[in-house]
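sorry for the late reply, my laptop died twice this morning and i had to redo everyting from scratch. anyway the thing you sent over, i finally got around to it. pasting the sequence first so we're on the same page, its 214 residues, then the predicted structure underneath. double check i copied it right bc i was rushing
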Amino acid sequence: DHNLTGITISLVNQVRWLYSLLRLELNSIMTSDITLVVSEDERRVLSKVGVPRSKLRILSNIYPDSRIYDAFKSISGPRQSRKVGAIFVGNMQHVPNIGAVEHLIDITKHVARVYPDFKMHIVGSHTMPSHMADRIRLVKNIVFHGWLSDENLNTLYNDVICAFVPLSTGAGVKGKVASAYLHSVPVVGSRIATEGMGLKDGHDYLLAEKPDEY
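ok and here's the structure:
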């Protein structure tokens, strides 16, 4: 089949490109004196492929300090008055975020059966793929905000109960999880979402992989 042959060639070319990129990255690491990684997970992965641990140093993600807290404290409204809703923040051209939004569609449908007033707020820069936008328009419980200013994002964080982070791919410490914590918003998410942060299910966040778990 001609189409199948074309797809196969495309996949082979992608694998070759990824392999060449991997070799370039590993060569850069091996020829450097020190490589900074953001968590123990990254250090463990690189150690498994032969990078000496003596070359690896952990430097955790760095986030703004008082600016977020001051802006958030200026917003009125007690926690008890928050609406029945959740938030997801991410660049809509980043592959892991696109996959997460696909999951959020199914999750939202499931949650809305139990809580009809539930709103899933999706915030993100750039335009999402057209097929996904078409699917979202059919789910009345999903609100896509696009890009928001810091002030409007702070307000939205104040209006929700928690952050849903159903990532199934992606590496490194996730900024969207840290951002939720900085805004005093609890997190419900996957193992991938909380990877490398040393978080404990049931204590620091709630683990959920399937729609009914959310």
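The mean pLDDT is 87.
thats about all i looked at so far, will dig more tmrw
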